[in-house]
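Morning - IPE inputs below, output right after.
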Amino acid sequence: MSIRLPFTKKKRKESEPLTNTENIPNHVAIIMDGNGRWAKKRSLPRIAGHKEGVDSVVRTVRAAHKCNVNIVTLYAFSTENWKRPQKEIDFLMKLPKEFLHIHLPELMERNVRIQTIGEFDALPAHTKEAVQYAIDKTRNNDGLLLNFALNYGSRYEIVQATKQVMADIQNSKLSMDALDEEIFAKYLYTKELSDPDLLIRTSGEQRLSNFLLWQLAYTEFWFTDVYWPDFDEAVFKQAIEEYQQRQRRYGGI
Ligand code: IPE
Ligand code: IPE
Ligand code: MG
């Protein structure tokens, strides 16, 4: 499905580099929200917002690269998003291919590695194929890790992890006494990732919507009213600069 947007695209200025390069978050997680409301405001169908939101992903990669952020995790589709109308779901499931078709060369140039978290197998075949191609193609890149949460639900993740832990205890691969937080975390999709340092949610909503409940235990939260399709380097930079002022105490003093 291709849609034409009845307006000229806003020219966006690339942001200046950060003046302070200390205390950069290693891992930034983003709940990309507000595509539907962005479209509604313009009397466009919701899918126009999703389409426009693809460009925000690329701007985010550029901004993260510039700020020396190592990992960006983007919440692209939740396990609850299957409740949406089938047409909208179908459109969303075609977006990874569209995104990669246009932007994979730039991602390669920027040395970006692509990964996913979530129930990958339950995605439509054409979505899996496009994403798997990008994962394979970028496998040896060692720059920014761009991690898409696709068909991701945190409670499901935790329940699956618990089942696997119990199976391993039953098979004597793991002892009950040895089980601790660090070992439990190895059963999550995020086993190879450090916890996010900064969580951004766009569109004014201030909730987690089943995103990384375990991993966000000590993450700094930053909310903006900006709808995802309007997200740009300047907004990303603003979030980083505010993060740089935060004091993380992890329960200490
Ligand atoms: C975020 O935008 C994209 C996805 C959840 C897939 P929404 O589609 O949730 O937009 P709003 O929240 O309805 O404005
Ligand atoms: C969260 O946004 C999921 C993604 C951004 C993929 P939703 O728009 O689905 O969240 P709720 O329903 O407003 O909590
Ligand atoms: Mg939403």
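Note: The domain at 27-153+198-244 is CATH 3.40.1180.10 (Undecaprenyl pyrophosphate synthetase).

O.
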